[in-house]
């Protein structure tokens, strides 16, 4: 494994088996501080299981997870210092926007006293300050996702995991959220691991992309390197061919050569 | 997942222990109590075959009529342009608010030898026997079937009907090829629940059965009159059979997962002829239902039926002299305690099974929680007598509360289970990562989100406690008896007017409860 000097998270030899089927086949990788890493792969490739193991919602059968050089494998999800954002937002339906963000803060001894202040400043940073009294059911999908992000950011996690967070939104909203997500990451200098099956999303957002298939890592590199030097045929088919065909159809229908611009 | 949730685990253990002592152990005791010799004695006794035949014939016929009526009414409420449908719906469910035995009493007062209608028309109705049992059983059981079927009709998707109309299918063809297959599963459940309800009820046949003895009446007489528990247990096990078949069929039905989503609500086309027929049948049913209740009201406040029909409070005073106040207090105490404890227990159990990972213990818990659907009240009551006799609980209010919680466990449990399952499982994941315990989620998220369901559960248990005469009958004594059990007692002493008054009291209490529940639910909706 390529060992990064300034690695925030190191995953070593992670293995998981479900009902006799290998879901993760001894994979290893590392994530840098402030990095945006996308885990790209088709459904069933093991990416969601990987995410659930990282945060402690599932237990691995073998391997280590090191965060800031500490083994966190034995820790409860809430003790790992990570936050997670789901596709369906999972907001508390009976609480207002402010209460949603403030709720977990109030339960933390170290944050309890400043909970309101932290919640408000996070909501302000995310542009939701004018909606704080609304219930989740009164918000659009994009707004709900912003609240879910604020709720996680407020707890100041060392790493934020995102499980296909923009796939449930409609197409135009997805574009907006993609940009916003990138802005938020810059603003908070967060380390993010982003799960997706959409090639464009991964290429737009990521510092590096980890392409997975059937429990293996096929390639892990910057978007540019993956595009220019695909490691194998799988990457060529699943990633490059897909992007090229999108690009080609764009050229055909606009009559422009996008490459030249 | 390896979260520490000590409070939650302790709660789960307590629920398992509770269900062991309230369901499993008493039932085992019942089975072990049977004397082999008694089985052949009961089966070979000359009354057995006629009794079984009486039970089967009356139950089958009453089930057919009851479900047919309920089906028609439910269809009218959901597929016609009748006005005042909500009022009709409330009226159709009125019979659920009085004990089964009151329906028998009502028929006697109307069509008996000295009945209001018999006297008015100078006619003799052959009420006692099959006629009475069937008629009383219909009154007693159709509201349950009606509510279950209304639910089914409400969740039909209109787009299938639109597609059928485009394809040129007639209304009749649509009914046969879409409606019937859609309601088939629920209809089978309804038929079995109604059959079980009627098959195991002793209230109606005790009053109007005449010489036609049925199995539950025999069991009631053996246990209450002769204290022959072994014979009672044998009949009890016989009564378990249809309930158990119903339970298995229901369980299988559920597992098939008939979860059609409604993309478009049913659109009712105008049709005057159809609506007129619906009006006639609905109004006739309302008359049929309200006649006994009106009679109870009249009888409670006349001097001496049928000789002196002038207004008087004599019967009311007499009923209070005979202890109505004390037994009403008992009934209210039992109903309130059962509802409060029952809601807590069923809700928490549903929280465990609906909101945590599938595990063997959770599946066992789910199954035991539902099993009370398969235990007729009288059978449960008898098994409690056998298991708890001689214990500290026996003879007090607490045993009646316990048996009622168990008897009415499954329905509120399922209400809570279905409500709680609607939340996405990611809520647990989020709370685990944020360090929010399961019990905190229960208190801060799930309970506030499901208040309407909790109110519904409370109301279900309360009303059923007020009207039940089954599980409590073998366990009650003169001190702890609830009001409903005073009816068979007064009936055996021919205190007809007093029984009428008691039925009115029970109905009034339940109506007040229903009104409170309605207002509470409305204010909740407004808040939203």
TrEMBL record, chain A:
Question: Which one Pfam family would you cite for this protein?
Answer: ABC_tran
* Assigned keywords, A-Z: ATP-binding, Nucleotide-binding, Transport
**Residue ranges of domain ABC transporter in the record:** 9-239
- Annotated GO MF terms: ABC-type quaternary ammonium compound transporting activity; ATP binding; ATP hydrolysis activity
Keyword ATP-binding on this protein? yes
Q: Does the keyword Lipoprotein apply?
A: no
Q: What is this protein called?
A: ABC-type quaternary amine transporter
Q: What class of enzyme is it?
A: translocase
Report the source organism.
Longicatena caecimuris
- Phylogenetic lineage: Bacteria, Bacillati, Bacillota, Erysipelotrichia, Erysipelotrichales
Automatic annotation (TrEMBL), chain B:
Report the GO terms under cellular component: plasma membrane
What InterPro entries does its record include?
MetI-like, MetI-like_sf
Q: List locations, semicolon-separated.
A: Cell membrane; Membrane
Primary site of residence = membrane
Every ABC transmembrane type-1 domain range = 52-250, 328-517
Q: What's a Pfam family in this record?
A: BPD_transp_1
Q: Which GO terms describe its biological process?
A: transmembrane transport
List the transmembrane segments: 52-76, 88-112, 132-150, 187-209, 229-249, 277-302, 331-352, 364-387, 393-415, 457-478, 498-520
The membrane-topology field of this record reads: Multi-pass membrane protein
UniProt KW keywords: Membrane, Transmembrane, Transmembrane helix, Transport
The family annotation for this protein states: Belongs to the binding-protein-dependent transport system permease family.
Q: What is this protein called?
A: Iron(III) transport system permease protein
Upper classification of the source organism reads: Bacteria, Bacillati, Bacillota, Erysipelotrichia, Erysipelotrichales
């Amino acid at each position: 494994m390529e060992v990064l000097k300034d690695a925030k998270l190191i995953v070593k030899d992670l293995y998981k088996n479900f009902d006799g089927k290998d879901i993760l086949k001894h994979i290893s990788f590392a994530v840098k501080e402030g990095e945006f890493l996308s885990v790209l792969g088709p459904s069933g490739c093991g990416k969601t299981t990987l995410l659930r193991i990282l945060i402690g919602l599932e237990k691995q059968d073998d391997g280590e997870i090191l965060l800031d050089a500490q083994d966190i494998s034995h820790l409860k999800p809430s003790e790992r210092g990570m936050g997670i954002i789901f596709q369906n937002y999972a907001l508390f339906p009976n609480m207002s926007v402010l209460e949603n963000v403030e709720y977990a803060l109030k339960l933390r001894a170290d944050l309890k006293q400043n909970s309101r202040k932290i919640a408000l400043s996070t909501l302000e940073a995310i542009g939701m300050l004018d909606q704080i009294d609304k219930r989740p059911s009164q918000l659009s999908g994009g707004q709900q996702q912003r609240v879910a992000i604020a709720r996680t950011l407020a707890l100041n996690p060392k790493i934020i995991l995102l499980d296909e967070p923009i796939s449930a939104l409609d197409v135009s909203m997805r574009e907006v959220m993609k940009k916003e997500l990138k802005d938020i990451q810059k603003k908070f200098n967060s380390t993010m691991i982003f799960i997706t099956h959409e090639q464009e999303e991964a290429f737009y957002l990521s510092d590096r992309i980890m392409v997975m298939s059937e429990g293996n890592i096929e390639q892990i590199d910057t978007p540019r390197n993956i595009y220019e030097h695909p490691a194998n045929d799988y990457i060529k088919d699943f990633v490059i061919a897909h992007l090229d065909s999108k690009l080609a159809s764009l050229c055909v229908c606009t009559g422009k050569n996008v490459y030249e611009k | 997942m390896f979260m520490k949730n000590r409070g939650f685990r302790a709660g789960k253990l307590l629920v398992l222990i509770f269900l062991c002592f309230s369901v499993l152990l008493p039932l085992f005791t019942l089975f072990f109590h049977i004397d082999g010799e008694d089985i052949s004695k009961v089966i070979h006794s000359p009354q057995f075959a006629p009794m079984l035949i009486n039970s089967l014939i009356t139950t089958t016929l009453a089930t057919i009529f009851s479900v047919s009526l309920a089906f028609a009414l439910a269809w009218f409420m959901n597929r016609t342009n009748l006005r005042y449908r909500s009022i009709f719906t409330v009226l159709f469910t009125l019979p659920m608010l009085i004990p089964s035995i009151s329906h028998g009493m009502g028929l006697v007062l109307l069509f008996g030898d000295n009945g209001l209608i018999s006297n008015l028309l100078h006619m003799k109705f052959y009420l006692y026997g099959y006629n009475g049992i069937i008629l009383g059983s219909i009154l007693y059981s159709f509201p349950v079937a009606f509510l279950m079927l209304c639910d089914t009709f409400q969740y039909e998707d209109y787009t299938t009907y639109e597609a059928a109309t485009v394809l040129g299918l007639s209304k009749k063809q649509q009914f046969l090829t879409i409606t019937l297959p859609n309601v088939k599963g629920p209809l089978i459940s309804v038929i079995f629940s109604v059959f079980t309800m009627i098959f195991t009820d002793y209230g109606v046949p005790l009053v109007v059965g005449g010489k036609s003895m049925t199995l539950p009446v025999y069991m009631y007489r053996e246990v209450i009159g002769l204290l022959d528990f072994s014979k009672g247990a044998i009949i009890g096990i016989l009564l378990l059979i249809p309930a158990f078949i119903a339970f298995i069929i229901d369980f299988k039905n559920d597992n098939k997962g008939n979860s059609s989503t409604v993309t478009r609500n049913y659109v009712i086309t105008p049709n005057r002829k159809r609506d007129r027929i619906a009006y006639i049948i609905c109004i006739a049913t309302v008359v049929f239902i309200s006649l006994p209740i009106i009679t109870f009201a009249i009888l409670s406040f006349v001097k001496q039926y049928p000789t002196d029909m002038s207004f008087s409070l004599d019967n009311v005073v007499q009923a209070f002299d005979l202890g109505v106040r004390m037994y009403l207090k008992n009934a209210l105490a039992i109903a309130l305690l059962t509802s409060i404890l029952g809601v807590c227990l069923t809700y928490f159990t549903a929280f465990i099974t609906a909101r945590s990972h599938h595990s063997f213990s959770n599946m066992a818990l789910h199954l035991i929680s539902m099993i009370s659907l398969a235990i007729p009240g009288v059978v449960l009551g008898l098994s409690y007598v056998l298991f708890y006799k001689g214990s500290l609980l026996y003879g007090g209010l607490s045993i009646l509360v316990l048996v009622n919680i168990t008897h009415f466990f499954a329905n509120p449990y399922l209400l809570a289970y279905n409500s709680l399952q609607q939340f996405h499982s990611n809520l647990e994941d989020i709370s685990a990562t944020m360090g929010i315990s399961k019990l905190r989620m229960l208190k801060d998220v799930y309970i506030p989100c499901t208040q309407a369901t909790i109110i519904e559960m409370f109301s279900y248990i309360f009303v059923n406690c007020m009207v039940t005469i089954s599980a409590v009958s073998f366990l009650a004594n003169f001190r702890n008896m609830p009001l409903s059990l005073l009816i068979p007692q007064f009936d055996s002493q021919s205190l007809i007017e007093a029984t009428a008054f008691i039925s009115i009291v029970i109905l009034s209490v339940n109506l007040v409860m229903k009104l409170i529940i309605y207002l509470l639910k409305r204010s909740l909706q407004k808040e939203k």
